[in-house]
Amino acid sequence: MAALMLLPIEASDAGWLSDMFKGSSKPAKSAKQATSPKPAAVAKRVTAAKPAGPAKPAASPRQRNVRLAALGPVALSPSTFKPAAPSCDPAKFRVVVDVGHTAESAGARSARNVSEFLYNHRLAQRIEQRLKDDGFAQTRLLLTEGKARRSLVKRVATANDLQAHLFLSIHHDSVPAKFLEEWEFDGKKSRFSDRFSGYSVFVSRGNPDFRTSLVFAELVAKEMKALGLRYAEQYSQPIMGRHRRELLNRETGVYRYDELVVLRTTRMPAVLLEAGSIINRDEELAMDSPERQNIISSGVTAAVKQFCDQRWAVLGPI
User: Fold this and answer.
1) In whole angstroms, what is the distance from residue 224 CA to residue 218 CA?
2) Residue pLDDT, tens place only, 109-129
3) CATH pick for 90-315 out of 3.10.20.30, 3.30.70.330, 3.40.630.40, 3.90.1200.10
4) Partner of 7 at 20 to 30 A CA spacing, among 44, 133, 156, 291?
5) Helix, strand or coil, per DSSP, at residue 166
6) Cβ contacts of residue 20 below 8 Å, gap of 6+?
């Protein structure tokens, strides 16, 4: 190929070059169209059965160049010029898996009086382990202490100090108090709402890399949907009042929540996953099962792998 590129080709004879890069399969000019005899080597290959005739005059340099150019596309495939697509090196990709809430500020209560923090911690650990098993060795489980506001500031600072490439905060959902009903479980009064269920994924336009955050959010949501899970549609409905959020993708369940501190103030793409509703009695049982936890951790890991591949392809090695 390098030799061909150095050949002196006149403008009238250079059309083959663009055809080659387009994968053109146009045949070379026929013998009747040629203005000069073929080189001896070519003539011998084409007419080997004919008896040798009188010696033909040697072709000029320009004629040889044109003939070589005409033969070039036959031997080269367009795929020759396509570079191999880069792929992610998970060992170099830093993911922070944030355990939502703290033991002191435990978040919502489930229909069976279990704190959201315990559900968050258990699922985040499973996601962390699954990512490490798949080669994302620098995955970091972020577990903080203290009251709500202080813990939020601390977890953001930690993620920023780690210079993570991706931040994922794990939560489990509830509903506004006006939707709660009372029931008795294990001899204790509790509250529940079976009216709503499903996962949801949140991003913030305040994040310095909102567009990339949205890319990852879409990947997570699509994996959840592909695994047979449904998203929580209630956040887009007027009945949610001040808890209503803008639905960015009606197919997958990605919402905009600009005020969330862990999404707005992190310096890397950041997403919050509400894995399911623990205030719904049936869904709480599902969220408590290893099967559901494995499904979600598998989906998240697949999304991280796709995200890493896309980032690698656009920005190159980390």
Assistant:
1) 10
2) 999 999 999 999 999 999 999
3) 3.40.630.40
4) 44
5) strand
6) 72, 73, 76
